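TA notes, week 10

Several of you asked for a full example with nothing omitted. So below is the full record: structure tokens for the whole chain, then the designed sequence directly under it. When grading your own attempts, check the secondary structure regions first.
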């Protein structure tokens, strides 16, 4: 993991935020990943040629329909922080047979890190 201008406290809080997302993927419950995201968060990416975009609730609904990803392997590849903003690159393998690269932007609000946006790539 590469860190730039990141305190150990912020690194731990960011990692904890991302872990909510990972845990929700593993459980197949959108409600389990919801604490990671700001209520106004968005998602963007392609599933095949179709753009999957909009409010983050689309992810929660998809996750509920997709079901548990009990064999999911997740690795935080990079965290970059500049004051109250951060980016995280997350590599996910075997999300019910799929491989994703997720890029998150986070904002620290009231001392809590929240994902504001998720952009993903579904590997072929």
């Amino acid at each position: 993991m590469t860190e730039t201008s990141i305190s150990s406290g912020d690194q731990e809080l960011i990692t904890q935020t991302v872990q909510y997302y990972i845990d929700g993927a593993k459980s197949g419950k959108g409600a389990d990943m919801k604490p990671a995201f700001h209520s106004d968060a968005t998602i963007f990416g392609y599933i095949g040629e179709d753009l999957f975009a909009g409010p983050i609730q689309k992810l929660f609904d998809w996750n509920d329909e997709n079901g548990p990803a009990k064999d999911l392997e997740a690795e935080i590849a990079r965290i970059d922080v500049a004051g109250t903003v951060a980016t995280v690159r997350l590599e996910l393998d075997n999300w019910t047979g799929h491989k994703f690269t997720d890029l998150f932007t986070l904002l620290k609000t009231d001392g809590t890190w929240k994902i504001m946006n998720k952009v993903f790539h579904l590997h072929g």
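The two ends are 25 Å apart (CA to CA). Use that as a sanity check on your answer.
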